[in-house]
Amino acid sequence: MSLFTKIYDVIVVGGGHAGSEAAAAAANVGAKTLLITMNLQNIAQMSCNPAMGGIAKGQIVREIDALGGYSGIVTDKSAIQFKMLNKSKGPAMWSPRAQSDRMLFAETWRNMLEKTENVDFYQDSVNGLVFDGDKIIGVKTVLGITIQAKTVVVTAGTFLNGLIHIGEKTFGGGRAGESRSTGITEDLVRKGFEAGRMKTGTPPRVDGRSLDYSKMTEQPGDEVTETFSYLDTKPLTKQRSCYLTYTSKEVHNLLREGFDRSPMFNGRIQSTGPRYCPSIEDKIDRFSEKDKHQIFVEPEGWNTVEVYVNGFSTSLPEDVQDKSIRLIPGFENVKFFRYGYAIEYDYFPPTQLKHSLETKVIENLFFAGQINGTTGYEEAAAQGLMAGINAALKVQNKEPFILKRSEAYIGVLIDDLITKGTEEPYRMFTSRAEYRTLLRQDNADLRLTPLGYKLGLASQERYDKMQNKKQQTADFIDFLENLSVSKKEVNPILKKYDLAEINQSMKLYKIASRPQLKLSDFFAINKVKEFVEHLNINKDVIEQVEIHLKYSGYIEKEKSNADKLNRLENVPIPLKFDYSKVKSLSYEAREKLTKIQPTTISQASRISGVSPSDISVLLVYMGR
Fold first, then answer.
1. pTM of the predicted protein model
2. 79, 206, 435, 452: which could join 68 in a potential S-S bond, CB 3.0 to 4.6 Å?
3. What's the rounded Cα separation, in Å, for the pair 494 and 516?
């Protein structure tokens, strides 16, 4: 049966962060798109913590925004607190993070999607995929409806055969209060896909009115707030504080009493959880020498008393959760909104994907988000954006859009997944990016907006703003390189910082590059002040110039290294290359290369188990 006579260009299965970005991207690139989700009220719901960004994740949100995605705008419109993390370190480490109003976040996402041309919506559960040989041609729903499509993007989150655990209780579900999804995994396995299981968890939600904040440490936002989007979204003028408290030995001892009823320790959960966001029981087991762990108390929004207990993720029985949390300072009289739980779900090892996020086994089928073994809203949204773009491009018979590791954290994320795979929920860190000095949160627009504009994804307004920033930055640097300043103008500034004074006139560029000085220190010099005011130079341009002054040597060195690596990206490996013919390759290299089928020598070099000598053999074999 079909109530849908239209054959869609793109069907997106799932309305979480990946699905929402996928639908928006596909539609904005020009594809007729259908978003199917179990509950339209839960589009882009923050299933776990009410926050976007953080270490490396903030860079990803900026990149999504620079390309023309929606996550940055939605975050700005729903934020209740903003922080720039790692400001004490170099600019490559600076990472924006915002606490969000959970309900406002989802509402804003839905409103933006509804205003996006080419997006249709349908509330139903997909329980099957329709194939024509090795191509996907549509989906089936629990209502028995078949909907045809030229491409399908599956963004099922934690819903594929989801199983929720609270102590000794187990029941099916995709998240609290919502059904799981069945049928998709089974269809894919029959088609030859390898599937696995992963686990994640979430902490209790509690009533903020029952907490004693006087026993906690207040964690306010930044005094001067910024935004995620490069468009003219408004920075916060008022903020809500978070709070910090700690567990103790007493809390840990009480938690241990419930370990025999914990699904993590009694064998009922055997799948792998996130290494970098462990449950409280996992923390006290792995780090038994620690007497306390941080607990961040995070408000869920402007107008709700619900609080997220960050750091207390758990699947212990509800009575153990109740007793142990009351021993944490400030939680003595806590009232629960809901208990923490763990969830197991199906995923598909991402080595089964191309860099476009199209599957190798089935043509026109794309995966994005937790189905690929990742964790985090930001990682999911980035994959959704890229899968949506590439699904639309596939319909238009255009080349896929692929970002290099030297171009974006999004490129690092996808390349890591495709070449290395993952056996535990993958999350992004700055340490994963070898070119992080190039991939800063402040320059994502300069790096990516021209690419988004060429795709038709980034707007003219966004492109014009980027071009103005680029031109003003170049003009300001040129001005500083050519302006000579006298010792009379500069020495008072140097003296203020107890720095060596100059004996003769010098170019301001050389003086301003001293690490102890800020560019704004020189705005007292009339010529500089007049230049800044005449061109109406804003803080973003000043930041770009300042980073150039202090770090240009490091940046140029990293660009050079990236260029060398990119030469290997231009050495292609033929499709379905027979590595068994190359007898000089190690057995492990032949096995890994045959399984992953890299498309370039550079990608092959990043596969675990492929040594530099194996790469040399391949280069010689291919006449290089």
1. 0.93
2. 452
3. 9
